[in-house]
């Protein structure tokens, strides 16, 4: 990188001098702009040649995944497969790191990507995206498995495009339809417990939205927020005791601890409706879900366009999943004596 920077400085200086010699004022400005552009392109080419000379692949991509669980793993795999499809096995090098659920570790990982001057960063989940935005305003950053970018990044007037060096894909399923699913499956129940991690901004957004929709449908809703996995069992026990149904959004902490939820709710006979398939497979009865693998593929296709210069990330709007599917967990439904409508697909059959 130092060599490339030196090349850029020398070429720019020579280009500006050549452009300003023997020209009128207007011609000088035009010539200067043209030669600066040419110089930048030359420096970029030199940088790529420098990578090849060092034996490096054409593109180096850093992947920061918040935590390991089925949904995020699938998104990462889809992203990698899309880039390999675009550039080949030898055309892209992945530096894939997992923060083990810790936001501070996300920051450490992002800082390492910045110091290595990676060509692009994938931020998988909200905490990873927040760390990436704080860590760099130059390296392109694509988020995935992030529910609402305005909430995640503190953009009050979010219009669908983040701008700057950030874009990505959202895993947001229609929250009003998730509320309608509860009404469809459990029309006679009254109290819905909203279980979520208070440290995840997008989880808060989802339960707030679902609460509003459920109250319009005649349900009484109560929040059950836990701070991390250490107090999850206590809060789930309270929620199961006080609720007729529990709703869980696309919450990464729950996704990594579904066994805790299932071991409490299933014996208590309390059904759990979830925001995504991975959580439903572990502790839920039904979900309106997306394919996280397909979401990752969509993110990878965006990355390919950015890396080749086909698209400007500052102008790329957030992309959403193209379709949603009603799914159910046959094992838990059978255990609780719940019959779902015919248009629900069993999770076991879809994997």
TrEMBL record:
InterPro entries: ABC_transpt-TYRBP-like (IPR007487), Peripla_BP_I (IPR028082). It holds the Pfam family ABC_sub_bind. CDD domains: PBP1_ABC_unchar_transporter. Residues 1-27 form the signal peptide. Keywords: Signal. Gene3D superfamilies: 3.40.50.2300. PANTHER family: ABC TRANSPORTER, SUBSTRATE-BINDING LIPOPROTEIN (PTHR35271:SF1), ABC TRANSPORTER, SUBSTRATE-BINDING LIPOPROTEIN-RELATED (PTHR35271). This is ABC transporter substrate-binding protein. It comes from Enterocloster alcoholdehydrogenati.
């Amino acid at each position: 990188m130092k060599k490339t920077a030196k090349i850029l400085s020398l070429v720019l200086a020579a280009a500006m001098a050549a452009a300003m010699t023997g020209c009128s004022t207007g011609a000088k400005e035009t010539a200067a702009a043209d030669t600066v552009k040419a110089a930048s392109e030359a420096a970029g080419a030199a940088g790529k040649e420098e990578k090849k000379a060092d034996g490096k692949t054409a593109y180096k991509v850093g992947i920061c995944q918040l935590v390991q669980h089925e949904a995020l793993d699938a998104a990462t795999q889809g992203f990698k497969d899309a880039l390999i499809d675009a550039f080949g096995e030898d055309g892209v090098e992945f530096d894939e790191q997992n923060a083990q659920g810790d936001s501070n570790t996300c920051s450490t990982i992002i800082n390492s990507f910045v110091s290595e001057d990676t060509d692009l960063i994938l931020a998988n989940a909200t905490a990873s995206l927040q760390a990436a935005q704080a860590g760099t305003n130059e390296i392109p950053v694509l988020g995935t498995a992030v529910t609402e970018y305005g909430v995640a990044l503190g953009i009050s007037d979010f219009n669908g495009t983040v701008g700057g060096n950030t874009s990505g894909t959202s895993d947001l399923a229609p929250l009003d339809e998730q509320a309608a699913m509860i009404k469809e499956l459990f029309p006679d129940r009254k109290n819905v417990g909203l279980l979520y991690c208070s440290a995840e901004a997008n989880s808060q957004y989802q339960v707030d939205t679902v609460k509003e929709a459920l109250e319009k449908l005649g349900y009484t809703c109560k929040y059950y927020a836990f701070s991390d996995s250490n107090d999850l069992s206590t809060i789930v026990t309270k929620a199961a005791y006080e609720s007729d149904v529990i709703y869980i959004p696309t919450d990464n902490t729950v996704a990594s601890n579904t066994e805790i939820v299932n071991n409490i709710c299933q014996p208590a006979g309390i059904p759990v409706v979830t925001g995504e398939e991975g959580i439903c497979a572990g502790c839920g009865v039904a979900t309106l879900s997306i394919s996280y693998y397909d979401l990752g593929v969509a993110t990878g296709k965006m990355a390919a366009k950015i890396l080749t210069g086909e698209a400007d990330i500052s102008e790329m709007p957030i992309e959403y999943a193209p379709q949603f599917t009603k799914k159910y967990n046959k094992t838990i439904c059978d255990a609780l004596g719940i019959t779902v409508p015919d248009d629900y697909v069993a999770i076991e059959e879809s994997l």
